Amino acid sequence: MTTQGKIKILETIRQGQVGGGETHVLDLVRKLNKDLFEVEVLSFTDGPMVHKLNALGINTYVIETEKPFDVSKWSIISKFISDGGYDIVHAHGTRAASNVFYSDNKLNIPLIYTVHGWSFHDNQNVVMRKMREFSENFLTKRARTTITVSESNKKDGIAKFDLERAQVIYNGIDHEKFNPSSNYSDIRAEFGIPTGKTLVGYLVRMTKQKDPFTMVRAVKEVSKTNRDIIFLMVGNGELLGATKKLASELEVSEQIIFSDFRNDIPAILQAIDIYCLPSLWEGMPIGLLEAMAMGKACIASAVDGTKELVNDGENGILIEPKDPHSLARHIVNLHLHPEGRKALGNNAMKHIQKYFSLDQMVNKIEQLYIETVRK
Fold it and tell me: How much is the pTM?
């Protein structure tokens, strides 16, 4: 512990780019009780999230590696953790856990591992999936506690490799930041979106997991019957170029507004009418939580933690992955029935307010930290 008697925590994240896990870390360190905890952050790449943390006055460090189990960095990481005098190391995601477990076990520092969605999934070939299952089993066995962000992820871990010492702590949303009653900048005016047009939002890092190709193919289906629907696709990622290329090939570029990652996500969400997340797999999708908190009608793939969040037809709509026809059909239906769209959004907002608050999440993690140090 620090000289002030505080519990000293090192939060570790795989990258400095902005994603769900990184947003989770940002919210967590911002809300932790500063009278009880001293917190620092280690990221394995630089980027906007690192700059945000530093701007908040959180000591944030970078040890550059984009490799999991990067043995060449372990001695550097061990010295860093030893010099830091940490009581607990909390790793967020597989890459972070794979690069700190050795140091923590060597130094006898408790490791807490939050799984923001397992690194294995059904869209991998058999050899890759088995290798990922082995590595997750290896890491969870070396963690004092494993946190999963959904019951689905916990059940998968138990089924695949007899997951031990695990508990579910759902991601939480800051209802002050994501408040549909607040005033935000006029995004529709910024992008020149005419009054009366339905605006569909897709706000993600454009990766294989988030399946932007299905989103673009759904735009093509919608365009065959309706030109009063505009699509706003916000985010960067390795598939951004390929996504734009597909939109051009399908001749739907005029119906899609592409925008780089932005910091004003609440304003974007307030501006849209429908939120889409056609993911191939998820832990507990923070972007979907944020959209629901803003009272938006949401369409999402029926995968993993998403199925725990969305009650189909009540507070959102579930579709099968890789199904652009179903996605397009539901978009058009919500466009044509604004009252139904509003009802879904209101139910979504109430659900998030009741079960997925940031304070609930932080309180549970704080209690875990205290119990870990006591043990």
Answer: 0.89
